[in-house]
Specification:
Layout: E1 2-10, E2 14-19, E3 22-27, H1 36-43, E4 50-53, H2 64-84
Parallel strand pairs: 1-4
Antiparallel strand pairs: 1-2, 2-3
């Protein structure tokens, strides 16, 4: 079973993970910390699942802090997927 994952910026100032069609908000204006439990729950890891991280898109009207958060989250998720496989 292949799961498509995207790291997205949603205006105004939200970074979300999209697992197929299930969305998990990780960062917003008030919440700047990511909990490992949030990511673990979103992955719902089971042996045999394959994960494919879509390349990060280009977003307009994104401030510098959230661009940095977006890049960091993308790299973190990419690393987790590589560890799983």
């Amino acid at each position: 079973m292949k799961i498509n994952i995207e790291v997205l910026y949603k205006h105004p100032n939200k970074i979300v993970l999209l697992f197929d069609k299930k969305e998990t908000e990780l960062i917003n204006d008030k919440k700047k910390t990511i909990l490992a439990s949030e990511i673990y729950k979103a992955f719902d890891y089971k042996i045999g699942k394959k994960y494919e991280l879509k390349s990060i898109g280009t977003f307009k009207d994104i401030n510098e802090d959230f661009q940095s958060y977006l890049t960091d989250v993308y790299e973190m998720i990419d690393s987790i997927i590589k560890d799983f496989q």
